[in-house]
Amino acid sequence: MFILSKLFDHLVLPPGLFILLLLIGCGFYLFKRRKVFWILLFSTLVLLYLFSIEPVHDLFLRPLEDRYPPVSIEEAGEAQYVVVLGGGVIADSPDEYGGSSPAGGAMKRLIYGMRIAKSMNMPVILAGGSSFPEESFLETEAESGSRILKELDFESDRVLMEKSSRNTWENAEQVKELYGPDTIILVTSGFHMPRSVLAFRKQDISSFPAPTDYRINRRPYSYRSYLPSAVYLEGVHAALKEYVGMFYYMLRR
């Protein structure tokens, strides 16, 4: 199922969707169904444009990012841990002298989680392993984050790791198995928070959501908002992945 989810992510969601549509269109062209080919080509171009502009990007992401407000430190005092979910690593990053570096969004999660943990004098669980066996030679997301927290003088005895999970569902499973918390402060990207809360709830772990790494600019649109950008296409891909993931998680036990 894990491999199927990765194939779905790369081949069915955009931008893989556009390649798939074009390949289907080429098939119709070869079988002299030219009208269908032109319809598919036009539809692909329209979808590519729409998914690459800011208003459509925001339309998909806003319900996810606005689902949970910023965490209330006063209300979250009963939590046992701050759990920071990984968000990918950059392998052999030159600035880390051969080590792995948390990707941009993952670094924001890491720093925000550290700030919360310091303010509440609470231990941190860094959750995240490697997605595929061939990546086992890399530092895991948890290991990379742990190293950076220690370099930032965060107390090493308050840094715990879960480094065998491959996705959000396994993050929750492994955190439950290793540390058995009832209540946590959950740190992840705003768009990723609804699916993450659901995954931990399925493991009977209550969460105080602490979203960070927001992708939407809260400002009026300008003409530039309607110019296509790969940044907006990436955001639409991320949002669609979350909606599909939430639907799947709701069906899982």
SSE blueprint:
Layout: H1 2-11, H2 16-30, H3 34-50, H4 54-65, E1 81-85, E2 89-90, E3 101-102, H5 104-120, E4 124-127, H6 141-151, E5 159-162, H7 168-179, E6 183-189, H8 193-202, E7 206-212, H9 230-251
Parallel strand pairs: 1-4, 1-6, 4-5, 6-7
Antiparallel strand pairs: 2-3
Helix pairs in contact: 2-3, 4-9, 7-8, 8-9
Give an overview of the whole structure:
With 253 residues, the chain is of the alpha/beta class. It folds into 2 domains: 77 residues, no CATH class; 141 residues, Rossmann fold. Helix content is 50%, strand content 12%. The protein contains 9 helices and 7 strands; from the N terminus they run ααααβββαβαβαβαβα. The strands form 2 sheets. The chain has a 5-stranded parallel sheet, with helices on both faces. Strands 2-3 form a two-stranded antiparallel ribbon. α8 links the parallel β6 and β7. α2 packs antiparallel against α3, α4 runs parallel beside α9 and α8 packs parallel to α9. The longest helix is centred in the C-terminal third of the chain and has 22 residues. The chain is elongated and about 65 Å long.
Instruction: Indicate the overall shape.
Output: elongated
CATH architecture of the largest domain, by name, is 3-Layer(aba) Sandwich
Mean pLDDT across the residues is 93
Q: What is the CATH third-level topology name of the largest domain? A: Rossmann fold
Please state the oligomeric state of the protein chains shown.
single chain
